[in-house]
Write a structure and sequence with these properties.
252 residues, Glucose Oxidase, domain 1, 2 domains, 12 strands, elongated
């Protein structure tokens, strides 16, 4: 199990503001402030499926587990799951349960369904990211529990809990316990602790700055020559605004 000092959690009002933004919008802001390689690091590089896009984005801190759904069943499997539930209950929320399925690329079943979703929702979890399967999709969404998974499946398999509160690898990215995650139908972003304090400000700032650029992009009522001139001017204004954070980094 992990033995590390977790960063101070962001205030609930900041997390709420982040939840109103899409994951691409949060990524755009993160790209401006991070020292990581924004073209390769901290986001899923394999395809994900959001089985409850109607719930919008989810924001929370990772609680992690590794499972083996294809068996064999561990003799103390019920105790292991009980220990995991107790661990999740003790971690402050909001939380996202991030699960590495050791049977990948095969999917023998899903540990997630109506009962599990309601159980972990009651423990302060807003959803799951699992590189295995998901089922009871309508019931999970009705519980307000978002499921981002590799695919849907019918069965539950064996569902052996191998390890929890450990680093996991899901969809091509490493996730440590306690990492802040933003996720929606586009995928998910694992926020480095050093980038958390400035994230919402950067994302909201860039989102506002993009409004003028978007207005220029929609102005089709002028000639092509005028459109191109106005759009180039809008890009220049946008880049100058982005430099407040980016210092020359990012797409532009």
């Amino acid at each position: 199990m992990a033995d590390q000092q977790l960063p101070q959690r962001l205030p609930p009002e900041i997390l709420q503001r982040l939840s109103r933004l899409t994951t691409p919008t949060v990524y755009n802001g993160w790209e401006l402030i991070t020292r990581r390689n924004a073209a390769r690091d901290c986001f899923n590089i394999e395809e994900t499926r959001d089985f409850a896009p109607q719930l919008g984005a989810m924001v929370g801190y990772a609680v992690t587990a590794k499972v083996q759904v294809g068996g064999p069943r561990a003799p103390d499997n019920r105790r292991r799951w009980g220990d995991f539930r107790a661990h999740v209950a003790a971690v402050p929320g909001p939380k996202i349960v991030v699960v590495q399925d050791l049977d990948k690329p095969r999917v023998y079943g899903s540990i997630w369904g109506e009962i599990a979703a309601n159980t972990f929702r009651s423990l302060g979890c807003v959803g799951t990211i699992t590189d295995g399967g998901a089922r009871d999709l309508d019931e999970m969404a009705a519980a307000g529990f978002k499921a981002i998974a590799r695919r849907a499946c019918a069965g539950h398999g064996v569902g052996t809990l191998v390890e929890f509160d450990c680093e996991v690898d899901v969809f091509g990215v490493n996730v440590a316990p306690g990492r802040l995650i933003h996720a929606d139908q586009h995928g998910f972003l694992v926020i480095p602790p050093e980038d958390e304090p400035r994230l919402v400000h950067a994302a909201e700032y860039l989102h506002t700055a993009e409004a003028d650029l978007l207005r220029a992009a929609r102005n089709s009522a002028v000639s092509h020559e005028a459109f191109l001139a106005q759009f180039d001017a809008a890009i220049e204004a946008f880049v100058n605004k982005a430099k407040v954070f980016a210092e020359g980094r990012g797409e532009w």
